[in-house]
Fold each of these.
Amino acid sequence: MEEYALKGTPEVEPLTFLLVESTQEEILRKHRDERDKRFPDQLYFSHQVVSLGDDELTAIEKVTDTNKGQKVSVQVSRNGEAIYTIQVGDSSPIRCLRGLWAYDNHWVLEVAHVTEKRGFQNTVDHDVFGQVIQDGISLNKPHGYQETFGYQLMGGKPFYFFKKRGRLGISYDNQEIMLGYTQIPHYWCCSASALNPRSAENMVAFFAQRGGVWYYVETGVFE
């Protein structure tokens, strides 16, 4: 893991950040080849498909009209037969289906739960938290996590971020590492999405805050 302190809040249009030491160009050059090995961006698709052995797994985001507005659910099917469904809250610009993966004999789903909040003069905001589900079981409760997000396979092994007792950490190959960050931007939309974690085959790059200081961080299986 390589962590770089920033002089202030990163800018998003275009993405720009000033480091206490070194420069943005120099830091981004270091692992550019690895960072460019990005996964296909599926976050804009409400239908995702992966293979698990000889089976085809499908995740679909569904929107239903109710008397309380549009509600979203995500359903996982194996060879066309539904095996798991989860309610994930209100329809919004934030995609609730965050990804579907398969590794070894497991399938993994990540969803964002969204709750719409209307404020003064009918302004709209959203509360969002993430949940990673493996083989139909949430990772949040058994591990004492408040939230899990940013799942991916890194070097072929499971990786995700988690929040526990108000602090953030990472899990890689089922080993927890507490990082102590109080914020890692994720699920942000529109131009602010530039600060969301960026995943690649063997690494992830992300922004974080700790003690009021912003950091740019790259962690991965580097050669």
Amino acid sequence: MTATAENGWELSVTRFVNAPPAKVWDVMANHIEEWWCPKPWRAEFDRLERRAGGASNCTMYGPDGEVHPHPGFVLAWDEGRRFAFTDAIVGDLMPAGAFMIGIWDIAPECHGSRYTATARHWDEVSATRHAEMGFEAGWGACADQLVALAEAR
């Protein structure tokens, strides 16, 4: 999909998962640290309030000692279907330097599930920067990790 103003400067990756939606959701929601960022990086969620309006706080750790905190806000938590976060709000409803809204969802498809991860950006500059940072490779690796976990369970 081409990122345009009409689609929220959207970048996305999608995968078919040979597992039922309930199993994929279990991995998405309950094993998030196992697939959230591309290996050899790892993610730790020290806070994830599973409800719209909840706080999230994830820190990503790189293989060379990199530490990247990602505080945010849960925009949607639709059990069994999707969740969405943003970095535009942190703490007690404090505005932050917004970069994107991330949406992760699943839907039944044939004998399995369709997983889609979407990043919507405030402007073309942010979407372009995200693409140049390696969106497709990075989010694609996360999608592949999620697929492998869901299909192995």
Amino acid sequence: MHPMLNIAVRAARKAGNLIAKNYETPDAVEASQKGSNDFVTNVDRDAERLIIEVIRKSYPQHTIIGEESGELAAEDQDVQWVIDPLDGTTNFIKRLPHFAVSIAVRIKGRTEVAVVYDPMRNELFTAVRGQGAQLNGYRLRGSNARDLDGTILATGFPFKQKQHAATYMKVMTKLFTQCADFRRTGSAALDLCYVAAGRVDGYFEIGLKPWDFAAGELIAREAGALVTDFTGGHGFLSSGNIVSGNPRVVKAMLASMRDELSDALKR
């Protein structure tokens, strides 16, 4: 096992256990709003602290970028751990059992190691660049859909960027007429893992942050999926506008979306 994957798994499981324990005692959860429709709880912060502790013990020289802590620079800027301690905070607050811990290791700007852990289902998604993706140790293969006909697509509403609401609805309507149905689960990390597992055939979302997709993106890719921006390029790393699925599904999604996109989303 890749040594950094080992540490990432240990950190994710530790944080996941803490989250699961707090899920059972909702009275101890304190939620606050840190931005428009953007919530954080004491559990997010505690889970992030645990993850950082585990990483620091083995790799004190690595830089860590956390959703709650921001960038914790260290002497080695080439290695960055990108962590989302609780992706799906709103679900967690509402006691909807669908959320995950997401940890990615980027070396010189490329994601090399990825872990997404769903503590409620005890599902551990992992990937190492060039070595495929796994779920609880079993190899993952994405969907083999040939086009959008009969597909299930996942998405997330742009609830933090409602200026895109009208465009988003147009894109969704267009795709909905061509696919079988949609799923909207509330965790981008798990959506990308579900693309990897073939549980959904494709996925798109507007304006994600790097910690939302850093791990899930590698897991999807290693299972044979493409990950692009809304025009088929790599702009999603900065814009957070993401499309994922097998090459045929992505091609069909992009073709369907093309005419509906506003200028602001063509990146």
Amino acid sequence: MSLLVEVQHRLGGFRLDVRVEIGPGLTALVGPSGAGKTTLLNVLAGIVRPTHGVVRLDAEILADTTAHIWRAPHRRRIGYVFQEPRLFPHLTVWQNLHYARWVQPNVPKTLLPADVIDLLNLSALLARYPSRLSGGEKQRVALGRALLGTPRLLLLDEPLAAVDQTHREEILPYLDRIRAEHAIPAIYVTHTWKEVAGRADHVVELGQGRVAFEGSVADAEARRNA
């Protein structure tokens, strides 16, 4: 996987001006609140159209403002897990999981529902509605739904921020299994360094809408401790 992002976007008084190239593995996207992390993810997902710039995933141009190219969000094959699970409350876990396959009917399926259910230990939850799930269970379902869309890239926007410490420790091993068994590239936004310190392959730090640092985890830790 190769992702090139070279975009500028203005939102009120905030300006995002980023150029970054991201490869396979897990990329930690860090920085203070208001640095532009979620805005950048929304540009990648197609939720936000940048004012200027290009987004290219492998050989496909997802956005190019000069060439007037804009790939619709549901055609990008990018899985997005938000801080809040955003499950459909009127659908069961089973139905929530299959929603991604309904909106992507013609995409070759490399992960079957049974694989994801086993991977995330969801079999006992399939008949439940979201109101009957814990915070950690909801996030596991949200992650499963993203995986069943057969994503080329996963965007994880502080996926553990809305759950307590016990459920954080419950979910992290599942993220490790996804990385180890399926090698889906991911961008992981977090304010908690220990969530990614032993997992990330690459670190991008934003500050005031710009790239303040890009490099290895070792270099990022050295910078933090300097």
